[in-house]
UniProtKB/TrEMBL annotation:
Homology family: Belongs to the 'GDSL' lipolytic enzyme family.
Species whose genome carries this gene: Lolium multiflorum
CDD domains registered for this protein in UniProt: SGNH_plant_lipase_like (cd01837)
Protein name, UniProt field: GDSL esterase/lipase
Entry keyword Transport: no
Gene3D superfamilies for this protein: SGNH hydrolase (3.40.50.1110)
GO MF annotation, one: hydrolase activity, acting on ester bonds
Signal peptide: 1-23
Pfam families per record: Lipase_GDSL
Entry-linked InterPro entries: GDSL, SGNH_hydro_sf, SGNH_plant_lipase-like
């Protein structure tokens, strides 16, 4: 018994190391399932079930119209980055955590991401004067993961082999923390408030990564922050007058993008430390910032239309077409005729076309 499980473990190690040497591209390795974490950019159905968010706009048409032909809990007209990654790795679709309960539901992978989730705990954000709305934090998602792991395999060696054959996808997390800070009406310096969160958000991501590494994770992808200053919601709600507020080339809000870049620098520094401390775990950075910035700055070059800062679905017109009165999925909203020409679907989340572009850039660049 002992020797056969050692052999098995040895074979897995060889496979894992070979996979790591074969390329920096995690898309070339083989996995049996994916476990994923994050917020609405990665949520494939949890927030539609969570009592605090059930019945939200994402559960109404025209969400899902392009690919699923019906609302399906995803905050897009179609597929998300995680969907394209799962498809290209030919993996089964992970079960939204709140949609399942048994080992059978979860054995092909689980998506723990929840729309509106923050990296930081609500109490911590509150202590900074920041109100969040969805009572799910990254720490909840890793707690849920540990429960699922126990359910799938109680013996330690079974857990190890399950972990070794799984891909861990940490989707973007922290956007909600930062945007709640940037939109905080009680602060007179919201950019500094958002910046002050960066080490804490990166620390929360580090704790989550250490949690799954301790459980035996061997391959993980950790997405960085999106260019927050290019979000139609923030552009519409937070206009500025300072000469250097808007980036001349893209029209995005420079100080908000600087917060995102600070996050990405600190995240990458933390990932370097983790790689040194855990050389047998392959840790990839998933760059969302540059692919999104590329299409926003040169939309027609990449097949998008000429108004990359306008939401497709929503209302209110103008360069951003964003106003909460007309939020996508509510009665007064309407959607553009061809979402594939837009970067932003609803002013906060991307279209399927943008998600496909980003996912392919991620799979190529890793
Ligand atoms: C998230 O974790 C906190 C404790 O950190 C807990 O109080 C809360 O109930 C959890 N939320 C969910 C939805 O499980
Ligand atoms: C912000 O408010 C604090 C007091 O609450 C004040 O000391 C500070 O000068 C203000 N900063 C700006 C940029 O107005
Ligand atoms: C949003 O739309 C409402 C209704 O038309 C309007 O009263 C309000 O001024 C708009 N808000 C902004 C920020 O444009």
């Amino acid at each position: 018994m002992v020797s056969s499980s050692r052999l098995l473990l040895g074979a897995l190690l060889v496979a894992a190391v070979a996979g790591g040497i074969a390329g920096t591209n995690y898309g070339q390795a083989r996995y049996d399932r994916v476990f994923s974490f994050g917020d609405s950019l990665t949520d494939t159905g949890n927030s539609a079930i969570l009592p605090a968010t059930a019945g939200g706009p994402f559960t109404n048409p025209p969400y899902g119209e392009t690919y699923f032909k019906r609302p399906n809990g995803r905050a897009s007209d179609g597929r998300l980055v995680i969907d394209f990654i799962v498809e290209s790795l030919r993996l089964p679709q992970p079960e939204p955590y709140l949609a399942g309960s048994t080992a059978d539901d979860f054995r092909h992978g689980v998506n723990f991401a929840v729309g509106g989730a923050t990296a930081l705990d609500m109490d911590f954000l509150q202590s900074k004067g920041i109100t969040s709305f969805v009572p799910v934090f990254l720490s909840n998602q890793t707690t849920w993961f540990n429960g699922v792991l126990q359910l799938l395999a109680s013996a330690r060696n079974k857990q190890r082999s399950l972990m070794a054959s799984s891909l861990f996808h940490f989707g973007e997390i922290g956007f909600n923390d930062y945007s709640f800070a940037l939109l905080n009406v009680l602060s007179n310096d919201t950019v500094s408030l958002a910046e002050s969160l960066v080490p804490h958000v990166v620390g929360a991501i580090r704790s989550a990564l250490l949690d799954v590494i301790a459980a035996g994770a061997r391959t993980m992808v950790v997405a960085g922050m999106i260019p927050m200053g290019c979000e139609p919601e923030l552009l519409a709600l937070l206009p500025g007058v300072a000469a250097d507020y808007y980036d001349r080339a893209s029209g995005c809000i420079t100080p908000f993008n600087q917060v995102a870049q600070l996050h990405n620098r600190e995240l990458n520094r933390m990932l370097c430390q983790l790689r040194r401390a855990h050389p047998r775990t392959s840790i990839h950075y998933g760059d969302l910032y540059h692919p999104v910035t590329a299409i926003v700055s040169s939309p027609t070059k990449y097949g998008f239309g000429g108004m990359p800062l306008a939401a497709c679905c929503g209302g209110g017109g103008g360069p951003y077409n964003f106003n909460f009165t007309f939020f996508c999925g509510t009665p007064l909203s309407s959607a553009c005729a061809d979402p594939s020409g837009s970067v932003s679907w609803d002013g906060i989340h991307y279209t399927e076309a943008a998600n496909r572009f980003v996912a392919h850039a991620m799979l190529r660049g890793l």
